[in-house]
TrEMBL record:
Name of the protein described by the UniProt record: non-specific protein-tyrosine kinase
Keyword Amino-acid biosynthesis annotated: no
Organism annotation: Uabimicrobium amorphum
E.C. number(s) listed in UniProt: 2.7.10.2
Span of domain AAA: 533-640
Length: 739
């Protein structure tokens, strides 16, 4: 056994569950615990939710009592579909579905409602609508009528709703009667219209057929071959067109070279020079031009030779020049002849091309015109055939007119008439009561979560852990003064086996471990505000540590509102104030509570408690007392009201901060922890107080494990749960396996 285990009480070393409390307890919150958290919120405000549910139920009862009794009666009529439509064709399902929708629309039309109103008795109008028949509108009647088609059937259900049972049955039956009568009247009118239409359309068809046949005869006379026209003849006509196209193409190919030569001739004519004629490739291979060019070259050489021997006026030179001119003239003359020949050749080709083009166009126009006549002939022939078919069909319809009633129109067959209803269908009281109660409960739930959302106090361990990394020493359940007879500061003495006592055992275990780690025997206990239960925690923790066999000294460090003397019923006299001033020794102010527990009261309240603590040698005084005691617990004033606790924490260390769940403001805790960090004051741990079934995963776990030890407390006849009426745990159920 190591040193730390020897200094711990027996229950702390033998119970692994308690020893695990000293570790940082931060389990992950799973979905199951989240649901339990929501359930805990609802249980906490169960009275509010129940009250809202009762209010909703009462409201529903009052609202339902104000509603009039409503009756409904229904009649049904079968729609027998025709075997054929008005064109004599079979009726398909899509067509018939549209016909059913049409019948429903007719029943719900204002025209049908007006016809029903015309046949309503005056007495029913007065009793049902509260007005005379002439004042009843179609909209008023339609608001009481509903029409539906039976699933998978051809049956129409007409239902009437109203305050009078006899009237709704009468109106429903009357609606069916009027609907059937109007349908029969429409059938007769439609038959008459159809017959009249057939009598008009058949002669018109005869006239059209004669006109079309006359056109066909005229076409046959104009184009005799139109009757014998076939694909072979059409192919021959196309072949003639293709042959003309081929001839034109070959001509244009031959014309290409001629066109090029014609262009070169035009260039030579435009320049009108001997050089242009001699340089053009039109005359390069021409024998006559070549001979004349050679003769010109010889004369030019002869002229150059003569000019070297004679003067320019010499007859030989003049003769040679004259010969050169004659040769040039011959070249021009011969070139002109060649150009004229090329132009005539080009014009000849142009004439031939125009001829072929004209011939091709005429063939194409002839084929197109004939083909159009063919198409016209075929279209008219087809139209005549269609008109003849329609004519024959209408003649057959006229013959079958007597049997049209059986297949061209819907036949309505009434099935069930409306009976007088025995009881109202509305209001549905049971449904209204349930809905009202449900809405009230939902409103209560919304209020509950709104209250929780607006509550800015500390509610869960997670919120505390977000504010500070300091360890959580433990959780103190809600200590009811009624259950513990007002002795909340002596719970561990009065009821040793309760879960409250077990909570203080867990905190004392955490302090034992903290002392082993920090070697600090002195702990200053404070809270954010007054009435946070720090003195209750202070006293019970001291009693528990003393029961564990440790010598514990209690010091009432609240020099502004001391309570320790009254709680332990000690005599009034000198105390902590005088000890700080060194007016007395520690032996003179220490009161013996029991064998292991001693106490120093506050003594006389000083004028300035802060100055008294600040100017004293409190650190040396406490270190002297630590030689005599195992643990020293100092009850300090609230840290959110005075600075005395901060000063004690700064000088002595071991500051324990008590936070009351659902009371201590989160913002204040954040500010106070920031203030401690700024002043470099070490926060040894946190104690969560007044846990009443909180919905944190950690607190829920604590309730489980604390209840395991408190079962004997409840079985001794105490019928209230010290965890609070909102605790998640049923105190009569053994939760040992869960812990």
């Amino acid at each position: 056994m190591n040193k730390s285990e020897m200094n711990l009480p027996a229950f702390a070393t033998s119970n692994p569950m308690l020893s695990s409390v000293t570790e940082e307890f931060r389990p992950e919150v799973d979905s199951e615990m989240s649901l339990l958290s929501y359930w805990a919120i609802l249980r906490k405000h169960l009275i509010l939710v129940a009250f809202c549910g009762v209010v909703g139920a009462i409201t529903a009862v009052f609202y339902t009592s104000r509603l009039p009794n409503m009756y409904r009666a229904g009649a049904s009529v079968a729609v027998i579909k025709p075997t054929k439509n008005t064109q004599g064709l079979p009726v398909n399902q899509t067509y018939y579905s549209k016909r059913l929708s049409t019948q429903v629309a007719i029943l719900q039309s204002r025209a049908m409602a007006k016809k029903v109103i015309e046949r309503l008795p005056e007495a029913i109008c007065l009793s049902f609508f509260g007005r005379e028949r002439t004042d009843v509108t179609a909209g008023q009647l339609l608001r009481t009528i509903s029409v539906a088609v039976g699933d998978g059937t051809d049956i129409l259900y007409i239902t009437c709703r109203g305050k009078n049972a006899e009237n709704v049955a009468y109106i429903a039956n009357l609606y069916v009667d009027v609907f059937v009568d109007e349908n029969e009247r429409e059938i007769k009118n439609a038959q008459d219209k159809l017959l009249n239409w057939l009598k008009q359309v058949v002669p018109n068809l005869e006239k059209k057929i004669r006109e079309k046949r006359d056109i066909l005869i005229k076409l046959q006379q104009e184009y005799p071959e139109i009757r014998t026209y076939n694909l072979e003849k059409e192919g021959r006509a196309i072949s003639r067109v293709e042959a003309a196209k081929s001839d034109l193409y070959e001509l244009e190919r031959s014309m290409y070279d001629v066109k090029l030569r014609y262009g070169k001739c035009q260039e030579v004519k435009k320049k009108k020079s001997l050089e242009a004629i001699l340089s053009s490739d039109l005359f390069v291979q021409n024998a006559m031009i070549d001979d004349l060019q050679k003769k010109k070259f010889l004369y030019e050489n002869q002229l150059r030779d003569l000019k070297t021997r004679y003067k320019p006026a010499h007859p030989s030179i003049k003769k040679t020049i004259n010969n050169i001119a004659q040769v040039k003239k011959q070249i021009f003359h011969y070139a002109k002849r060649i150009i004229m020949q090329e132009e005539e050749k080009y014009e000849n080709f142009k004439s031939r091309r125009a001829y072929y083009q004209k011939k091709l166009k005429e063939l194409e126009e002839q084929n197109l015109a004939f083909h159009q006549k063919i198409l016209m002939y075929e279209d008219i022939n087809a139209e005549v055939a269609a008109l003849r078919d329609r004519y024959n069909d209408y003649r057959e319809k006229m013959k079958e007119y007597d049997s049209q009633r059986s297949y061209q129109f819907d036949i309505l067959n009434p099935i069930d008439s409306a009976g007088i209803p025995g009881r109202p269908f509305s209001p549905n009281r049971t449904q209204n009561y349930l809905v009202g109660t449900f809405l009230g409960v939902m409103l209560g739930v919304i209020f509950v979560f709104l209250i929780e959302f607006l509550d800015q106090s500390i509610k869960t361990v997670e919120e505390v852990q977000q504010l500070t990394p300091a360890r959580i020493m433990g959780f103190i359940p809600f200590i009811s003064p009624k259950i513990f007879m007002g002795k909340t500061t002596h719970v561990v003495e009065e009821k040793e086996n309760t879960n409250v006592a077990e909570a203080f055992r867990a905190i004392s275990t955490s302090i034992f471990f903290a002392e082993e780690q920090t070697k600090n025997k002195t702990f200053v206990i404070t809270s954010a505000l007054a009435q946070d239960g720090k003195t209750t925690i202070f006293c019970n923790l001291a009693l528990m540590m003393a029961k564990a066999g440790h010598k514990v000294l209690l010091i009432d460090g609240d020099l502004r509102r001391p309570r320790l003397r009254r709680l332990f019923e000690l005599p009034q006299g000198e105390g902590f104030t005088e000890l700080l001033r060194r007016d007395v020794s520690s032996e003179e102010v220490v009161h013996k509570i029991n064998e292991n527990l001693s106490c120093i009261t506050s003594g006389k309240i000083p004028a300035d408690p802060y100055e008294t603590i600040h100017n004293s040698h409190i650190k040396e005084l406490i270190r002297e007392l630590e030689h005599e005691y195992d643990y020293i617990l100092i009850d300090a004033p609230p840290i959110g009201i005075t600075t005395d606790a901060l000063l004690l924490g700064k000088k002595l260390g071991g500051l324990l901060f008590a936070i009351t769940v659902h009371r201590t403001p989160k913002r204040m805790v954040k500010q106070l922890i920031h203030r401690m960090q700024t002043l470099d004051i070490e926060l040894s741990g946190l104690i969560l107080n007044d846990v009443k079934g909180s919905y944190s995963s950690q607190l829920s776990y604590y309730n489980y494990y604390g209840l395991y030890y408190s079962k004997s407390y409840y079985t001794r006849g105490l019928n209230k749960n010290p965890l609070g009426r909102n605790s998640k745990i049923n105190p009569l159920v053994d939760n040992t396996k869960k812990s």
